[in-house]
Design goal:
single chain, 5-stranded antiparallel β-sheet, Peptidoglycan synthesis regulatory factor (PBP3), Domain 2, alpha+beta, 7-stranded mixed β-sheet, 8 helices, 26% helix, 2 domains, Beta-lactamase, 29% strand
């Protein structure tokens, strides 16, 4: 029989509204998502899975592949790539690389991130894969591995193409992976100015110039997709990721992200319920060398919750009790259940702190006799 034991009367009482939170705020963007990077909790969303033109925000994917190759040791920052005529002739935002010159990888990183160079993106694509189309194929493979289920890349720069599309949610996934997988390279996204070939250009990301805690990532604009921005900011060791697209103007691209980031940091906070390895409760043991055993949680349990909603969260433990020996260390013996209004229920395994051997035959007989005479003892 499953016995549900009340673990707390948790007056902390937390009410988290995931998708419903999106109705608490309005934005001019056609597509948007705001995510807590630690818990992957969506704080705000507006058409997050709607296919959209990513424009130059798709360069985050191009840079991701570049970082990946450097981290794997197949490439260094001082290696150089040759500039083809295709790259040199590419229109739109440019790094202004010279035809047939060789450009250092580190300069190309800055040229793509700070200057949003379409030419630099093509140089990287051809340098890594031989052609831009082959490079796009590799982007799609990586996107699927990251869980970007709706994205399709056909070029390295985000140049308008009917088949080149993604979603706000997919770009948020890519951003989180970039920050977590490449902490030694992420700083390039926070550079405000880069000069190449005698031409000085500022970073187009408006959030990094303001006191928002922002440290990246990338703007984008096409006639079809409107103005967009993928940004991230950190305040008091808490990081948020924002993707917004379909904005009507550069001005709205400056103001809307600031409003959303301020709202996300102000209205929500992260709460640690348990630390990894912390004892959550104890389980009674039947016919074991120990009468009870602590049950632990494997990973830190952190929830992102509205600051004002602390009244109705319920936490219980479901398990069969007593637990029969023998028991192995790390064996799942119970389920921690968390019910929060307007959010999907959370269930996490609780594991045994240590192994418990079964009593010997005579001790088991004695235990059984004791139970028959006196009932279960402590």
């Amino acid at each position: 029989m499953i016995i549900k034991q009340a673990l707390f009367a948790l007056v902390l009482s937390l009410m988290f509204t995931n998708s419903n939170a999106s109705h608490a705020f309005e934005t001019l963007g056609k597509q948007a998502i705001l995510v807590d990077a630690t818990t992957n909790t969506v704080l705000f969303s507006k058409n997050p899975d709607e296919l959209m033109t990513p424009s130059s925000m798709s360069k985050i994917m191009t840079v991701y592949k570049l970082f990946e190759r450097i981290k794997d040791g197949g490439l260094s920052l001082t290696d150089t790539f040759r500039v083809s005529e295709k790259a040199w002739r590419k229109r739109g935002s440019k790094m202004f690389v010279k035809l047939k010159s060789r450009v250092k990888v580190e300069d190309l990183i800055r040229g793509i991130i700070v200057q949003s160079g379409n030419d630099a993106a093509i140089v990287v694509a051809e340098g890594l894969s031989g052609s831009e189309s082959a490079f796009a194929d590799s982007l799609n493979v990586t996107a699927k591995k990251l869980g970007m289920t709706k994205s399709n890349f056909v070029n390295a720069s985000g140049w308008p193409d009917p088949g080149h599309e993604t979603t706000a949610r997919d770009l948020a996934i890519l951003t989180n992976a970039t920050i977590k997988n490449f902490p030694n390279f992420y700083h390039y996204y926070n550079e405000k100015v880069f000069t190449y070939n005698g031409i000085k250009q500022p970073n187009r990301n408006p959030t990094i110039y303001r006191n928002l805690g922002a440290d990246g990532l990338k703007t984008g604009h096409t006639k079809a997709g409107g103005y967009g921005l993928t940004a991230s900011a950190i305040r008091k060791n808490r990081r948020l990721i924002l993707v917004i697209n379909g904005l009507p103007s550069k001005k709205s691209r400056r103001t809307e992200p600031e409003k959303l980031l301020d709202w996300g940091f102000r209205e929500f906070n992260n709460y640690t319920l348990f630390k990894a390895g912390e004892t959550v409760t104890k389980a009674a043991v039947w016919m074991g060398e120990r009468g009870s055993i602590p049950l632990l949680i494997e990973k830190d349990l952190v929830l992102t919750l509205p600051r004002k909603a602390r009244r109705r969260m319920k936490v219980t433990v479901a398990m069969k009790t007593p637990v029969s020996a023998p028991i192995q260390k790390g064996q799942v013996l119970a389920i921690l259940k968390i019910k929060i209004p307007n959010q999907k229920n959370i269930e996490l395994p609780l594991i045994s702190e240590t192994s418990v051997s079964k009593l010997g035959l005579f001790l088991r007989l004695g235990k059984a006799a004791e139970y028959l005479l006196w009932g279960e003892s402590e």
